[in-house]
Structure prediction request, 278 residues.
Amino acid sequence: MIRLHPGFYFGSSRTTRAVGGVTINENLYAPAAFIPSHVHDRPFVCIVASGGFVERSGRASAECGIGTVIWHPGGDAHEDRFGQRGGTCLGLDFDSAWLDRFTDAEPLPHAWMFDQSPQTAWLGNQIVLELERADALSSNALEGLTLALVATLARSAGPIPPRRPAWLDSAIIRLRDEFRDPPTVAELARDASVHRSHFSRVFHHHMRTTVAEFVRRLRIEWASHELRRSSSLSLADISLLAGFADQAHFSRAFRWVMGCPPGQFREQKTHCQAFSRA
Prediction:
């Protein structure tokens, strides 16, 4: 079994920053990259900043797109397979003194878990943005946001879901292919040969989100990719191509997931890319 010491990751390192007992590592991963099963010595949090992958931990697995936050306890064995866009992930490593902030009365999660709720997605994206700002106040902001993120994960920790059915994987593939004009829950349930209420319960149990929110995330993921590469497309064009009814709807959904409006996101990413080439 491959064992990684704190601060070491697969992929290509882009940025490393230490803040009050937390080391934040930004790592880039190539399209279709496969990360073999491995363990980390200490607990860490992974924030998906762009792209996405499927992660497997024991019998459980998760579709980890932009905004997903994953908690890895020390010694947890997991593997990852990235999609065709590769990905950018932030790894948050904690020293012993930082971890001691959590007591038996307020325990850290004991098992691998992932969270795709709007609250954790917002906190994760704020950490991504603060890492890029790197001004006089960002260290304090990063420390506070990290503490809030880990506390949120600890509150929402639950048992690892059992192995998900094959029809759920088929439904996820179809949603990824057709996110601009997605099938209804009734259509997905019919294809899976299950009742729609059962489909919704199983989907939420394994994906920790609803079908509608999952589709919304796929649209935001596609739109953020277009914004990140400084596409010549206007915001109105991107909103329509992503499947939103209009730009106003797109802007509200984007801000809800990413924590900032799409225009600001585009400006920050363009500035960051220009600075990295200077």
